[in-house]
Specification:
Number of strands: 12
Structural class: alpha+beta
CATH superfamily: Jelly Rolls
Helix content: 10-25%
CATH topology: Jelly Rolls
Number of helices: 3
Number of domains: 1
Amino acid sequence: MDPELSALIARLDLRPHPEGGWYRETFRDPRAVHAAGFDGPRSASTAIYFLLAEGNFSALHRILSDEVWHHYAGGDIEVTALAPDGALRTLIVGQHAADASPQAVVAAGKWFGARVAKGGRWALVGLHRGAGLRVQRPGDGRPRGAHGELSRARGHHRRAHALIVTGRES
């Protein structure tokens, strides 16, 4: 592993994230909220550091709350989201590409994943979510009906997965 990356992981005390990359929770609001679609109360909001390295990715998953991405350091990150009609939209979170923005929002209910943009070795971002994040193994706590919905969109899912993993649609 790149020594600069290893030092950053150690300095920020990051741990492997089940969907890829490394993370550490930095904030958890002590207030609880009851929001539709969740299996009980959640923290009102949470924030994490999230680090991806070249060659690894955040696997395609869906969240029940809007998630705000903030770029902190390193290369840009490509966040690819799958719209209900199957359209793919890639947001560039960072500071290097002409179409990059230091902040982007992934809307609740969208399937999405991320990878370091071409030319980047690693990227450090912050993620903020309200109602709060609960890190789980992939597949745990999926939104109700997620498997059937994803099966119906199988072709779109394959395109999104290929774009996240390889940078090219299949």
